[in-house]
Design brief:
By secondary structure, the chain is α/β, with parallel strands linked by helices. Helices cover 34% and strands 22% of the residues.
Length: 152
């Protein structure tokens, strides 16, 4: 995936039972789509809570946050409840969504985990920004904040 590429479509049921389709945001909202290795791990928890706080700051008028990991929706439900996450978390147990975004491969794939990578998808459905930092949750949140500020 590169800046300017069309974001791969997806259609999933989130941990809370809501249907989440990328096409539903086209022309309406920017999408922050972040892939993270696992619920309840230190960096993933910090990252998710950072996005939770950012989502509260920005509201949902112009942008939406969606998290993706290979964990089950049951795990996502517990994770969401514990950390008061209001945005959808998508189960990608077969890693097909991660593969379509280039978020599966390398060393983490040997243990079945996705890469930590965040995409900002603009209202036209194009990749506007990519943030990759395996051990820095803060870099992802800062990168998203900067990308969304540029998109307006």
């Amino acid at each position: 995936m590169q800046i300017g590429d069309e974001a791969p479509a997806f259609d999933r049921v989130a941990h809370d039972g809501t249907r989440v389709r990328l096409v539903d945001y086209r022309g309406k909202k920017n999408v922050v789509l972040y892939f993270y290795p696992a619920d309840f791990t230190p960096v993933c928890t910090k990252e998710t809570c950072g996005f939770r706080d950012l989502a509260r700051e920005m509201g949902d008028e112009h942008s939406v946050v969606i998290g993706v990991s290979a964990d089950s929706n049951e795990s996502h439900g517990k994770f969401s409840a514990k950390y008061d996450v209001k945005f959808p978390l998508l189960a990608d147990e077969d890693k097909s969504l991660a593969r379509s975004y280039g978020a599966f491969g390398g060393l983490r794939s040997l243990i079945g985990m996705t890469k930590r990578i965040t995409y900002v998808i603009d209202k036209q459905g194009k990749i506007a920004a990519m943030i990759a930092a395996e051990l820095s949750a803060d870099k992802h949140v800062r990168g998203v904040r900067e990308a969304l500020a540029k998109l307006g």
